[in-house]
Amino acid sequence: MEPKLEKKYGFFTAVTMVIGTVVGSGVFFKAEKILTATGGNLKQGILAWLIGGVIMISCAYTFAVMATKYQYVNGLVDYAEATMGTKYAYYVGWFMAIIYYPAITSVLAWASARYTCVLLGFSITGGECMTIACVYLVASFALNSLSPVLAGKFQVSTTVIKLIPIFLMAIVGTIIGLHSGMTKYNFTHYVNKSSSGGLFAAIIAASFAYEGWIIATSINAELKNAKKNLPLALVAGTFVIMAVYVLYYIGIAGTVKNEVMMAGGEEGAKLAFEKVFSSAGGTLLFVLVVISCLGTLNGLMMGCSRGIYSLAARGNGPKPEIFSQIDPTTNMPVNSAIFSVLLCAIWLFYFYGANLTDGWFGFFDFDSSELPIVTVYALYIPIFINFIRKEKDLSVFKRFIMPCISLASCVFMIIAACISHKTAVIAFLIVFAVVMAIGALLTLRRKIS
Q1: Is residue 6 one of the residues assigned to a domain?
Q2: What angle do CA 198, 200, 203 make, to 5 degrees?
Q3: What is the pLDDT of residues 103-159, one digit of tens each?
Q4: Three-state secondary-structure class, residue 369
Q5: Half-sphere exposure of 341 toward its Cβ, with a 13 Å CA cutoff?
Q6: What pTM was computed for the model?
Q7: Which 3 state secondary structure label does DSSP give 195?
Q8: Any idea what the CATH number is for the domain that residue 368 is in?
Q9: Burial of 416: CB neighbours in 10 Å, binned 0-12, 13-18, 19+
Q10: d(C-alpha 408, C-alpha 394), whole Å
Q11: Which structural domain range is residue 381 located in?
């Protein structure tokens, strides 16, 4: 009998995957961009965090309702299939496997390496950083492929660890800031009023920090009592995330001036920790920050390694007979994982050339940390519309109110991306169209053969 994915994860693993996949580098990595986009306007920055959080929670709630009705192999693809049919589900899965998962995972590998370089005193733009990023990618792949249970335990432990520096900064930083007047200063002084992108750009940046919760649905076939545990994990996890982000952001504002964070980025965050907890204590807590980033990378790799498998399990995509195989020893789709980590390496190379250099790709330089996320929100729209149309047995709140809020959130994200990223959206859409055309050719060839 062909091996199948086993029920090996519990509720705590699911909720920590939601929190652990989302909370991590984004809250540190994008704080600088949010402040820059709003011209150092802390109030507008907090508003961006709140709006991004509401968008995340509304969409997570709608998917939580879906999770009580649809339960198969791979979350988002299954929801697309149940609401829109097999063809749409295939294209959603193809996009997730080829663009979304590897692009976001590669950025997380780079972000983890960047914080490691800050900790070790290396250049954050040099070869050391990219080398460490590659090491992190391979290590995360190996952990998930060779020992998925250990990867789950690592996800739980890093989630607990990553909350330590965030909560400490949120509480202690706020207290110190209120006493010293730093919080009041940052709330009342703007660095510059001519911001680069404004609130829309800040919300798109926050979307990266909030992204990842949907990846928790990729383990629903391996989740014990999934119909109960997955919805609870999605709702509880997303509420915790928004609260944690806003409180941390306010805590940071109590330690260093906005202009320092805008200029320093990761160095500014490290300075904030050292200022509050002394040099030794700040360095120790920054080590926990690095660990938190690795936990986020691990959560993304858990979803990424199953990306092409979700298509192959349905007989779709390239070589489904190969990528649908489950290793009998590790109970993991190892071939799918290998393919995924190679895609991550390609997207890491692209991210470096497009975003960390003078621009290797010219017109096709776009931010692969944000635009794939906005595309996912665009893909949600038909799913939500058909969900409203089909699920007639649900209450008005579950069938109409929350899905409509989710729809409005998705449309808002698309508009915000067009305003903030401008022509880069066109470049990304061209790449997106080429990738989807390849996916169409693959499925067409399979039908002909």
Answers
A1: no
A2: 110
A3: 999 998 998 898 898 888 888 777 889 999 999 999 998 888 877 778 777 867 777
A4: coil
A5: 22
A6: 0.85
A7: coil
A8: 1.20.1740.10
A9: buried
A10: 20
A11: 11-448
